[in-house]
Amino acid sequence: MRHGFGALTSACLLLSSVAAEAAISGVVLSNDTTHVTYQFQFTGTPGFVRAYIDTDRNPATGLALQGTGADYLLENGFLYKHLGGGWSWQQVGAVTHTSTNGTAYWKVARADLGETATPNDADLVFQTEPPQETSAKTTHVYSGGTGTGTGTTTWYSASTATLANPERGFYRYPQDCDKADFNVTTLKGYRETQKITQVMCIFYLAEFKNGPISQAQLDRFQRQSDTVRAAGLKMIIRFAYTLDTSGDDVPLSRVSSHLDQLAPLLSKNADVIAVVQAGLIGAWGEWYYTQNFGNAGAVSTQDWSNRKAVVDKLLASLPASRMVQLRTPKFKRTMYGTSALTSAQAFSGSAASRIGHHNDCFLASATDFGTYENTSVEYPYLAAETQYLSMGGETCAPNPPRSDCASALSEMAQFHYSYLNNDYESTVLNGWSNAGCRPEIDRRLGYRFSLVSATLPTTASRGSVLSVSLALKNEGFAAPYNPRGVELVLRHTSTGAVHRLPLSSDPRRWAPGTTTTVSQGVTLPSSLPSGSYAVLLNLPDPTASLNTRAEYAIQLANTGTWEATTGFNSLQRTLSVP
């Protein structure tokens, strides 16, 4: 379609038959007393972006499309009114419009849509072309009413900076965790200069194969945890017994008794534990070369039972909020069933919902050096369940072109990678830097949340319900896999007093590649002092020891919103409380 000024007529498209497509996402609808704003995300580079608006919500009037009768059309920067009789439109005039970086946005006077300041509603359908993609119908219920003021919308600019956010990104592996103490200055340097927030702690127990772990080594583990906490980082942990391919590990009974000793420390320090790799069995804790659990792939039914007992014991030794990772998909499929974890099962506390994956030979061969046995089965399985589970690992050998940027980026997205080793393997890592994709990997490992818009009133009374709508986009490869809070923060602009109001949304459900709208009515305390309040968003660590520490809060990928001293993200809004 090519539209000029004046009447708009065409019979070239049967729009009422267009099916909804997933290419349109992240719809955000808002209004104030005089204007409506519409936004959606799209893929590709369409020449036209459109919004069809059914203001009377009557499919029998206007252009029939997706169960609506569109009375008005927004196409690129112009508004048109339906004239009746099929595809026939009259231009109303130009509107505020942008369409850049995969986001379409309009701001339209309600009067131009035949609306008044009285709260009302409308049905909308969005479209891009070419190729033509059409959304399903969505309903815009206008904000407004007593006690909440009128909602106004603020839009935010995304940032391309690499962020030092918790439980994601590249990690450092400075030394084996059982042999030398971490240095707090070194760890702080990782976070402050490299934007790295995780360290690997592989804790070997070789000297305790025939008896309990010494108090000195238990104390060392506690020291390591204390240092990591002081530096503002978290640990990826693995316990193991040997670095030798002889597989000189210990039987199940010894593993169990050692986990009994470690359980109190794992519980006490869960706040700085990102995830625990299963370890404990075989060389490097990778479950292949082992003298006690089925060596070099020759694993009996009893061996599998014993392996599962180790994992079950490790899960029981950790708080329910923490996950365990297995080295290959086959391990979990053999011990816990071949069906991938579903959305309904995720984060339920079951064993399956707490067992993730790590691949320590990422991209090294067609099977990643034995990580996969049957990619036609294991790829879709892993892709499905890592939407809700921890996934990470390291590279171990150059294998171009598979280990080059294209495959790396594709599989990190497909399998929802949250972390990778920054210290191994250098040829592969340098290849990503030289080819130019390392900055993108730095940004996108794990989650990467950015504010798209925030809609809330400018005035609210104490004891009233404050209606808030936030749109946040996740441009990372994954979502967070550990629990994470979300809070609306009101900070008095004169006294600095802070009031943290919980929101019910779960960031673990903010899926990569999507925009999530968090809409909630928040009751303001009746004791809230009058005055002006800065409005902020906080995504803190839920544990009491870290809840108020800025290093453990999530920084949104926006410009001009982050407060490094508080860990809050400014919504760049103020709220007046009379």
Furnish the topology, listing elements before pairings:
Layout: E1 7-9, E2 25-31, E3 35-41, E4 48-54, E5 63-65, E6 68-70, E7 72-75, E8 78-82, E9 88-94, E10 96-100, E11 103-109, E12 121-129, E13 133-134, E14 138-141, E15 152-155, E16 169-172, H1 184-194, E17 198-204, H2 215-231, E18 234-240, H3 252-268, E19 273-277, H4 301-317, E20 324-326, H5 329-336, E21 355-359, H6 375-385, E22 391-393, H7 405-414, E23 419-421, H8 426-435, H9 438-444, E24 449-456, E25 465-474, E26 487-492, E27 498-502, E28 515-523, E29 531-538, E30 562-563, E31 568-577
Parallel strand pairs: 16-17, 16-23, 17-18, 18-19, 19-20, 20-21, 21-22, 22-23
Antiparallel strand pairs: 1-9, 2-3, 3-11, 4-7, 4-12, 5-6, 7-8, 8-9, 10-11, 12-13, 12-14, 15-24, 24-25, 25-28, 26-27, 26-29, 29-31, 30-31
Helix pairs in contact: 1-2, 3-4
Describe this structure in words.
19% of the residues lie in helices and 30% in strands. It has helices spanning 184-194, 215-231, 252-268, 301-317, 329-336, 375-385, 405-414, 426-435, 438-444; strands at 7-9, 25-31, 35-41, 48-54, 63-65, 68-70, 72-75, 78-82, 88-94, 96-100, 103-109, 121-129, 133-134, 138-141, 152-155, 169-172, 198-204, 234-240, 273-277, 324-326, 355-359, 391-393, 419-421, 449-456, 465-474, 487-492, 498-502, 515-523, 531-538, 562-563, 568-577. Helix 1 runs parallel beside helix 2 (215-231) and helix 3 runs parallel beside helix 4. It has four domains: 7-142, Immunoglobulin-like, CATH 2.60.40; 166-322, TIM Barrel (Alpha-Beta Barrel); 325-446, no CATH class; 449-577, Sandwich (Immunoglobulin-like), CATH 2.60.40. The chain starts with 6 loop residues before the first strand and ends with a strand. Residues 1-7, 9-22 and 145-149 have low confidence and may be disordered.
